[in-house]
Amino acid sequence: PHWRISPGNNRLIATVIRVRMRPHCQELLEKQLEALKQDDRFLFPGTVSRFIRGSEAHPERIEIFLVWRSTAAPSKEDREEHIRALQQELNDVLDWNTAEYDHGPILLHA
């Protein structure tokens, strides 16, 4: 697809969370993520896409990408509440004390 820039009144906004996996939890994390998928949980209303990925360069780190449409995104408080629920669900496998959070507009997308 061609590159696009969303109009100012309908921007895409990304939330990125980087967090370390607890030691020896890769298999358990994969099982928990499969359960989330099977049960259709943590759909984050207002998102147009969601990704949870590993890292070849940093195998101990997980990155969570949530892409929101500005016209459908819930309030900051509601977004944070949904993220807290995910944190609680994955607390056994992810060390949330190491989490880094970033949130901002997507400038160019396809």
Overview of the molecule:
It is a single chain. The chain is α+β, with helices and mostly antiparallel strands and 110 residues long. The protein is 25% helix and 35% strand. The protein has helices at residues 26-39, 76-89, and strands spanning 12-21, 47-53, 61-69, 94-105. The chain has a four-stranded antiparallel sheet, with no helix packed on it. The model has no long low-confidence stretch (mean pLDDT 96).
Radius of gyration: 15 Å
Tell me what portion of residues adopts beta-strand conformation.
Answer: 25-35%
**Mean pLDDT, as a whole number?**
96
Strand order of the largest sheet: 2-3-1-4
What is the overall number of helices?
Answer: 2
The helicity comes to 25-40%
Which regions have little confidence, pLDDT < 50, spanning 5+ residues? none
Shape: globular
Element string (H = helix, E = strand): EHEEHE
Total DSSP E strands: 4
Query: Which class best fits the helix and strand makeup?
Result: alpha+beta
Strand count, sense and closure of the main sheet? 4 strands, antiparallel
In whole angstroms, how far apart are the ends? 6 Å
Quick synopsis:
This protein is an alpha+beta fold and 110 residues long.
